[in-house]
Amino acid sequence: MDSILRTLQAQQGEMVKMLRRLVEAESPSTDKAAVDRFGAMVGGIARRMQARVRVFPSRQTGNHLRAEFRLGPGRTDGQILLLGHLDTVWERGTIARMPFRVRRGRACGPGVFDMKSGIVAALFALRALRTLRIPVKKKVVLLLISDEETGSLTSRPLTEREARRSDCVLVLEPAHGLKGALKTSRKGVGEFEIRIKGRAAHAGLDPEKGASAIEELARQILRVKQFADRRRGITINVGVISGGTRSNVVAAEAAAVVDVRVARVRDQREIERKIRSLQPADRRTSLKISGGKNRPPLERTRQVAQLFERARALARPLGITLTEADVGGGSDGNFTAALGVPTLDGLGGVGEGAHAPHENILLRELPRRAALLAHLIASF
Ligand SMILES: [Zn+2]
């Protein structure tokens, strides 16, 4: 059997122990102090593995963490970026009603799947490479940012700078489905707000003097929905609406928040143009559009396909039949792929229920995915 896999499988208990520590150190995106504590914990583990650790302070969000590993003898040539995030969508205190638990070969708990198991897989992969003295020609940088779940607004420049220096980016986000497919295509995501100003009036005495912002918003929503195109992979969701004050007042204000997802860069520009050029049907109302694209799509370019093929070939001797998937959710891999840096996403835990109370991972996949990651790192 493969020596990396054998080593990691013997460490499965240790991996679960670390996973428990990481899950129990809650790290919601919205709680800077908590994310920073968690980042310091992970930074400490990396330091004990002889990594050079650097913290990038961020005022609005948690700090970002960069750990650099040199695993080869002598000079390194090039860089591999392992990309992940420290934050979760779970508020502090969730652990009390959703404790870390191991049952029937699975582990559950807040953030176990998205993506603390990915962090554990990366750390153990690097440790196995070191203890087995497997030469790695490239420098390995583990970049864990703190605001992924809120759109990566403060970390994006850091991620892009590090990606530009790298020969490839391996993203530690969860795999897709229980078969653990890698993500070779992800949709681009945008968020827009449509705000309508109308004219208030008494609904009984002089309704004709009013111009209803709510009615105008309803028309605009139906119009926006027509921009969706299932075949081209364009989806539109009006997820939030608000407006009006009371039933007997013609509404002076209304607003909607719209989520837009596209499979192609070209469509992202096109949809944005269409939304920005919406015009009011009732001329007495006015319309204000804000927001825009957040993440570009991760397109399955030739480079992405080649990287997937490399992973698939390395997975076979480990007994993993690797498949690929295209998914609607975006990650920071979308940023790096858009720069033209070969990016492979979904190399973290195998499980289900991201952002849901039943979030869990399959424990036997943990050493296997770590082994795949180690082989990928050593293959460059
Ligand atoms: Zn994630």
Characterization of the model:
The longest helix has 20 residues, at 112-131. 47% of the residues are buried. A hairpin with a 2-residue loop joins strand 4 and strand 5. This protein is an alpha+beta fold. It starts with a helix and ends with a helix. It is elongated, with a radius of gyration of 24 Å. The protein is built from eleven helices and 18 strands. Helix 2 crosses helix 5 and helix 5 (112-131) crosses helix 11. Strands 1-2-6-3-7-16 form a six-stranded mixed beta sheet, sandwiched between helices. The chain has a four-stranded antiparallel beta sheet with strand order 4-5-18-17, covered by helices on one side. The chain has a four-stranded antiparallel beta sheet with strand order 11-13-9-14, covered by helices on one side. It has two domains: 3-186 and 297-378, Zn peptidases (Aminopeptidase); 188-295, 2-Layer Sandwich (Alpha-Beta Plaits). Bound molecules: zinc ion. Zinc ion is lined by residues 85, 114-115, 148, 173.
